[in-house]
TrEMBL record:
Keywords: Membrane, Transmembrane, Transmembrane helix. InterPro entries: MAPEG-like_dom_sf (IPR023352), Membr-assoc_MAPEG (IPR001129). Pfam families: MAPEG. The chain crosses the membrane at residues 6-26, 117-135. This is MAPEG family protein. It comes from Spongiibacter nanhainus. GO terms for cellular component: membrane.
Length: 141
């Protein structure tokens, strides 16, 4: 399996783990303890600031996972390989995890929001670099 595919798999696993260990724990502890009925949970509804940040962090993962998936599919469909593809793919995964952790673990000050945005922007740059590599490889071949 290629590094890009491993990075995509890691991105998917991170999305699921983030759901289970943030939003899931928050909801299920309240449901199972009888503090909140199951019907009370709506997307981005009531909850602590931490819960709302966890919801947004998970939503960010869900929004970007298909984009990364499409890019990795194009990498494989075009038989594009190389150290740059590997490094950038891993960079996207690392930036995604760092963005999520910054979002969930810290109250959002201007400085932390700027740091979180920098991790997001690194992912976007990585997406465009990978697209450029795939298109260049396809046009050259």
């Amino acid at each position: 399996m290629s590094i890009a595919t491993w990075a995509l798999l890691g991105f998917a696993a991170w999305t699921i783990l983030l759901l289970l260990f943030t939003v899931g724990v928050y909801r299920w502890t309240r449901i199972l303890s009888g503090r909140t009925p199951i019907r009370e949970f709506v997307a981005d509804g009531d909850g602590s600031d931490w819960y709302k940040r966890a919801m947004r962090a998970h939503t960010n993962c869900v929004e970007n996972l298909p984009v990364f998936g499409a890019i990795v599919f194009a990498i494989h469909a075009s038989a594009t390989t190389g150290m740059t593809v590997d490094v950038v793919s891993l960079g996207v995964l690392i930036a995604r995890i760092a963005q999520s952790l910054t979002h969930v673990c810290f109250e959002q000050t201007n400085t932390l929001t700027s740091i979180r945005f920098a991790f997001f922007f690194a992912q976007i740059i990585g997406f465009f670099v990978l697209i450029w590599i795939v298109v260049s490889h396809s046009l050259a071949g």
